[in-house]
Design a protein that fits this description.
Layout lengths: L7 H11 L10 H8 L3 H13 L3 E3 L6 E3 L1 H31 L2 E8 L2 E8 L14 E3 L4 H8 L3 H8 L15 H14 L2 E4 L6 E9 L5 E10 H4 L3 H18 L5
Antiparallel strand pairs: 1-2, 3-4, 3-8, 4-5, 6-7, 7-8
Helix pairs in contact: 1-3, 2-3, 4-9, 5-7
């Protein structure tokens, strides 16, 4: 990446944060200015901005700065994501090999699912699910699994005022019908997306649980209906097995 494409202020802020190590938890403006080769006025603006975003906090006694709570929140999120990656990669690969279809893992972000892992089908005709891509939760297999396992209060908050968009003629757009579908998903332990996000595409998904039994992600398989439909029972079983294997790797014991 060319230096011309980088934002100098953001780069300086990142350099500043990296100066805080386990050995040096408190640093002042003068020390940071010397280390970074920046003027004190520039460093002062940087630390003030980072403190406003809770990435830094000022020690009331010394006036120096230390890492803020937002940094710990970010580090916890990174650790959680790394744990999830390590837990799912082997079962996900086995699931793709077993079904011959694109296997993926998604997490819930409000009313959307975000695909965080995927292994593509070896077939020429396959479904492309890029990592980082988003889709509506109510019309995807992984999304319905994740919605189904939300605490009732959280689910009510998500559905309140949500005008469910129709991706296809088969998408559930009635909130009461969606609630009924989610209850069934919760009871049977897996969900199906039958042409609801894209006509001609079917998917199956099951929950991934952490050591406390909380559903933290969903694992699924998606592919063209002509290939998926004849082997649907086998796919359901394979998805549930793979998701359970990933859950065990996260420490879950039923």
């Amino acid at each position: 990446m060319s230096d011309r494409t980088l934002l100098t202020s953001v780069r300086n802020a990142a350099r500043l944060l990296k100066e805080f190590t386990g050995k040096e938890r408190l640093l002042g403006v003068s020390e940071l200015s010397r280390r970074l080769g920046l003027s004190k006025s520039t460093v002062h603006r940087l630390v003030a901005t980072l403190a406003a975003e809770h990435l830094l906090e000022q020690d009331p006694d010394s006036g120096r700065y230390r890492l803020g709570l937002a940094v710990y929140d970010l580090s916890a999120a990174v650790a959680k994501q790394l744990d999830l990656h390590e837990a799912v990669i082997v079962p996900l690969t086995e699931l793709r090999n077993r079904t011959g279809e694109t296997a993926h893992v998604a997490v819930l972000d409000g009313r959307e699912v975000v695909y965080v892992e995927r292994i593509e089908s070896p077939n020429t005709l396959r479904l492309f699910l890029e990592v980082g891509r988003r889709n509506w939760a109510h019309c995807t297999g992984t999304g319905k699994v994740l919605l189904a396992h939300l605490p009732r209060v959280e689910l009510d908050r998500v559905l309140d005022g949500w005008d469910l968009p129709a991706k296809t003629p088969f998408t559930i757009t009635d909130p009461q019908l969606l609630r009924k579908e989610l209850e069934e998903v919760r009871e049977r332990g897996y969900s199906q997306n039958l042409n609801e996000s894209e006509v001609g595409i079917l998917s199956v998904a099951a929950p991934i649980r952490d050591r406390l039994g909380r559903v933290v992600a969903a694992m699924g398989v998606a592919g063209p209906a002509p290939r998926m439909d004849p082997q649907m029972h086998q796919v359901i079983y394979a998805v549930m097995e793979a998701a359970a294997a990933a859950s065990r790797r996260l420490g879950w014991r039923p």
